[in-house]
Amino acid sequence: MKNILTPLALLACLGFITACEKAEDPFVPREVAPALVQIINATYQTDFATEPNVPSDSTAPLALKIRVLKLDKTNILDHTKGIDSIPVPNLNVKLLKRDGTALGEGTTDASGTLTLTKTWAELGLVPNYANPPLKYYKGQIIRLSWTGAIDGVAFTRFSSVSVR
């Protein structure tokens, strides 16, 4: 019996060792974002959230504004300096609806900001109510995406606009 247990124990150990094989990552491979896109006028502390929302009044044109920052990580290990956020000037950015409809295009200024002014009709919003004195669009949400490329690496930033 002792002669059988030793080979079985070795076989079990060999089985455990070979079972520890590196598995492929089941998730889609992603590239690190080349820029940090801040949605201006988003709800308090959500400007860097996954999908920030900008609540806006339905009676006025909508000013969609972003700021694009490039992260300089050269001093990441020095706690006295840290990471710098550098504005990205002259960057071409497109504004799209989630279905791919182009809404506009612009270039960031010296401070890395871009403002596109749109009407609710341009965004494809239709009134909820037939009675004109009511707030037509209250509660409706339009999902947007901002796309561009920095140093040959494309990026997309999602946001949304809702009617107050």
Features:
about 160 residues; mainly beta; Immunoglobulin-like; 5-stranded mixed beta sheet; 4-stranded antiparallel beta sheet; 1 helix; about 10% helix; elongated
Strand content: 35-45%
- Name the structural class: mainly beta
Strand arrangement, major sheet: 2-9-8-5-6
Total separate domains: 1
The shape is elongated
Low-confidence stretches: none
Set out the fold topology.
Elements: H1 2-19, E1 36-39, E2 53-56, E3 62-72, E4 84-87, E5 92-97, E6 102-107, E7 113-118, E8 141-150, E9 153-163
Parallel strand pairs: 2-9
Antiparallel strand pairs: 1-3, 3-4, 3-7, 5-6, 5-8, 8-9
Q: What would you say this structure looks like, in words?
A:
It is a single chain. It contains one helix and nine strands. It has 164 residues and is mainly beta. It has a five-stranded mixed beta sheet, with no helix packed on it. Strands 1, 3, 4 and 7 form a four-stranded antiparallel beta sheet that branches. The N and C termini lie far apart (80 Å).
Q: What is the structure about, briefly put?
A:
The protein has 164 residues and is mainly beta.
